[in-house]
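SEVERITY: medium
COMPONENT: batch folding queue
REPORTER: lab tech (J.R.)

DESCRIPTION
The queue accepted two submissions in a row. Attaching both inputs and their returned structure tokens so the on-call engineer can compare them side by side.

ATTACHMENT 1
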Amino acid sequence: MTSIEKHNHDHSLESHKACVSLVPIFKHLDEEQLDEIMAATRSVSFEKGEIIYREGDEADSLYIIHKGKVRIYRLTEAGKEQLVRLLNPGDFTGETALFTDSVHESYAEAMMETKVCVIQRSVLQGFLLKFPSISLKILQEFSNRLNTSETQTTRFSSETVETRIALFLTEQMDQKNDRNIVYLPMSKKDLASYLGTTPETISRKFAELEAKGLIRQKSTRQIEILEVDELLLV
């Protein structure tokens, strides 16, 4: 029995509509098309720390995050977690199952109370044929994730930890925010996993960058970038 099968399902129409209309691959559809997809969707709730799916589980559904946050990670041969990405409301995972019979190669864990909308592969494949625009949206997401993965792999092999941190911080900047405030989207533990280092190294490098006058740690998750151009040169 999978993690999904162990949970009670929320069949309320309002919940499904809110979830389906939120995800980018569906929100361009008209009301009638959304209603059809809603009817095929089930909503499942998870507590903080619960596993939504694990490595080796059959990959047969698309999972859409309705509320909460989910971390996707893999285990290295040494048993160490490698964070792949974080999912927020409107994000989805399990998309590779839409095109082939396979098993999950990673873990999906709820980081807080989380509600996930689930659509089985056989059902969604029918929608892909009926509404080709969904396929195009999914392919766009595939492309974005592939680019992100390739960038991350390249940085692991060619950049120092300090440079990885600097690049991550500048990429998190809100271009509309003149004060260059960065809100870290994850804990230092998860950030360390994502950047291929340790929490202790993250803390030390933040302190070093602050001592150089490049950043200011305003709180645990809030960092002000003082010298953007200098930071990119570390």
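ATTACHMENT 2
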Amino acid sequence: MMKIAWIGTGVMGKAMIAHLIDAGHELHVYNRTVAKMDDIPTPYKYTSIKDCVKECDIVFTMVGYPKDVEEVYFNDGILDYAKKGAILVDMTTSSPDLAIKIAKHSNDFEVLDAPVSGGDTGAKNATLSIMVGGNKDTFDKMNDIFSLLGNNVNYIGSHGLGQHCKMCNQIAVAGATAAMSEALVYMDAYDLDADTVLKAIGSGAAQSWQLNNMAPRVLNNDLDPGFFIKHFTKDMRIAKSEIEKTGVHLKMLDSVYNMYDELEQNGFGDYGTQALIKYYKK
């Protein structure tokens, strides 16, 4: 049994916390909105990060934006108050440069960047893909814990490379989500039976997680967030910024980002990413 601090109890975080509790670990949790901790089955709930992290062997962070990561590590004091020798794991999809910055300021700790993919379903079923950057020895220490949260745990390389891997993931997801949406629009234009068409194409060359998992949600008008549009646009902004440092422009990424950015600007930021269909049906 380990004492584990968890900072950020959002859509995915709560399910991940539950898996760690079920495995017998003692969870200490913090969230800026205290009410979001009410249904978490642990007595260790805090209104300050200092009190949450000070006795824990591992500190997980899973917050919204890079600015939030910066705040909890540098302003709210994880780096000041965590127990010496603790392992700090940021699972937020964030900036590779920020992951490197945290590592450089963490002489008293071991640090990993470990963003995930799989959304709310993957978090609930412990089937997340976890992409880890940092020292290999630290990854090896954490592998059993990661395996409680996901079934596809990969060591990518040094600090920041977990985040770069997640950018590759988000670029691929952007294209797949747009392709799924356009296929549904085509089905509708020709009055095809969508369930039949999805069955026909869902196991062939067109097969994708988006087509098999998100298209049925769209057909049921279920646009609730497994992953927020506002967070996906943030991820794509990071990906665009990182690739543009190399002098390369990715046209598909630019196109899908522009569609999602328009949706966010029009009030759809708290919808799930499958709400891209709203762009086509505006």
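NOTES FROM REPORTER
Residues 260 and 276 are 7 Å apart (CA to CA).
No errors were logged for either attachment.
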